[in-house]
């Protein structure tokens, strides 16, 4: 298999040249114009950022991609799926409000925003998978699967569970419905906090396995022998009383995310962009962000998400640690920035499994765009 091309441009902007102009030139050089977008629906997967976090991608980056899609005759929309954990993006109303609070709007991005798995994270499509180790199907937000073309726009960063968060995580984890996120994250079953439960019985109506009952104390209970672990009860609970155990170890979680990525991109045109700036050590899902661990590096684009992630990893690992960051204060025992920050993770398993199941190539040729 020949090396995949990954296109790169740095963050330097001489007077008269803007960063957004460089991004447009980058995606054009990488070949986005070769995709037939005429009258096609184009999903642009982005993380809108948890309010309080300031390291997420600014909407200006999204507008460059959306405007380019529109110029090619496409119908772009920004999209993400609801979160599994409790926060400001756990259902579509809060999710859209959070996106707007962080500056995302049709005016700032040039396109509409759609929460792909609906109001409560249950509007999904079960996508068949072949040649995978963990899943025979994946539960993906319906609007994402309804699109004709898929584009990922990713803020590249560290991650406490997966080592790093790049294109594969943005696609695989980000496009999973609540049931999909449950399947990737948890080996176990959801549980109910009796102090938060109101006994409203909503969860019992949505459980297809009849695994949830209401006790004499008017609190819900889950029979784990009957529970299928689909996570629908988490999505429909209005009081955040139901949660899952995040018990999948790093290697398994990374492999599962890669398989969900395959479900999203297989069988249709796809293109991927990663911005490597404000490289925070943790996920943008936190309602805060720590200081960047390396200086801003640049922007990358490719048709291959595996090669793209590998190129970004190598670029970050080659960069000097910022002395005042958590990375600068690490012992640096591993000669690997991601493992130094999160020693219990194994980021290599993510791209190795992605290559194994055929969604991309770890070998890449870096093409610099001036």
Automatic annotation (TrEMBL):
> Is the keyword Ligase assigned to this protein?
no
Lineage, uppermost ranks: Bacteria, Pseudomonadati, Thermodesulfobacteriota, Desulfovibrionia, Desulfovibrionales
What Gene3D superfamilies would the database entry show? Answer: 3.30.70.20
Q: Does the keyword Transferase apply?
A: no
User: Which parts of the sequence belong to the 4Fe-4S ferredoxin-type domain?
Assistant: 188-217, 218-247
Q: What is this protein called?
A: Ferredoxin
A single Pfam family, by name?
DUF362
- InterPro entries in the record: 4Fe4S_Fe-S-bd, DUF362, PSI_iron-sulfur_center
One MF annotation (Gene Ontology) recorded for this entry: 4 iron, 4 sulfur cluster binding
User: In which domain of life is the source organism classified?
Assistant: Bacteria
Q: Show the SUPFAM superfamilies listed in the entry.
A: 4Fe-4S ferredoxins (SSF54862)
Keyword annotations from UniProtKB, A to Z: 4Fe-4S, Iron, Iron-sulfur, Metal-binding
